[in-house]
Design a protein that fits this description.
By secondary structure, the chain is mainly α. It has three helices and no strands. It is flat and about 30 Å long. The protein starts with 8 loop residues before the first helix and ends in a 5-residue tail after the last helix. It comes from Bacteroides reticulotermitis JCM 10512.
């Protein structure tokens, strides 16, 4: 397991829907990230994090 970061795949994957995600879904997304991580995936996650800050919907 890697160190905790500021954001991650599960934090940005289900924006909206009040962030409803089970612990199992979060774990699956963490595993997916660990298996497929890349520089470009990190850039995509960072971009989604930035856009989440400026969206109007409460999440």
């Amino acid at each position: 397991m890697g160190p905790a970061g500021l954001t991650g795949l599960w934090q940005v994957e289900k924006r909206g829907d009040s962030g409803k995600m089970s612990a199992e879904e979060r774990k699956e997304l963490d595993i997916k990230y660990a298996k497929t991580f890349s520089f470009w995936l990190d850039i995509k996650i960072i971009f989604k994090t930035i856009t989440a800050f400026i969206q109007k919907e409460n999440v």
